[in-house]
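TASK: fixed-backbone design
INPUT:
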C-alpha cells in the first residue's frame, strides 16, 4: 500500500511537471523536489478541502453533469498556489481551469501507462 502511494505521488509530480511545461501561465520554480512538494501539498489539500468542497457542491456538480468538478479542481490548485511559493498560477479562471484539465488528463494517462506496463504478460 505504501509503495502504491509513493508511486502515485511520483506520478502526480510528473503530471505537474508536464502541465507546467505545456501551460504558459503555470510555473513551478525549483527542481524535482519542488514538483514532489507541490504534488504532496496538492494531495493533502485535495484530500481535506477537496472532499469538503465536493460534498458542498454536489448538487451543482450533478446539475452540470460533472463539469463543475473542473472548477473545484481549479479552486484547489489556487489554494495550493496561495500556500506554496514554488507554484505560480497567473489567472484564476483560464489558467487554473486549463491546468486542472491538463493535470487530470496527464495524471490519468500516466496511471494507465503504468498499469499497462506492470500488468503480467499472461493476464
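OUTPUT:
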Amino acid at each position: 500500500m505504501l509503495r502504491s502511494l509513493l508511486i502515485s505521488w511520483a506520478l502526480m509530480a510528473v503530471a505537474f511537471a508536464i502541465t507546467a511545461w505545456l501551460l504558459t501561465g503555470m510555473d513551478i520554480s525549483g527542481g524535482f523536489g519542488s514538483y514532489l512538494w507541490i504534488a504532496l501539498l496538492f494531495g493533502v489539500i485535495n484530500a481535506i478541502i477537496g472532499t469538503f468542497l465536493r460534498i458542498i457542491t454536489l448538487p451543482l456538480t450533478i446539475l452540470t453533469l460533472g463539469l463543475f468538478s473542473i472548477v473545484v479542481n481549479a479552486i484547489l490548485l489556487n489554494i495550493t498556489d496561495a500556500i506554496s511559493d514554488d507554484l505560480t498560477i497567473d489567472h484564476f479562471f483560464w489558467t487554473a481551469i486549463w491546468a486542472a484539465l491538463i493535470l487530470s488528463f496527464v495524471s490519468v494517462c500516466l496511471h494507465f501507462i503504468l498499469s499497462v506496463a506492470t500488468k503480467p504478460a499472461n493476464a
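COMMENT: The CA atoms of residues 21 and 55 lie 32 Å apart.
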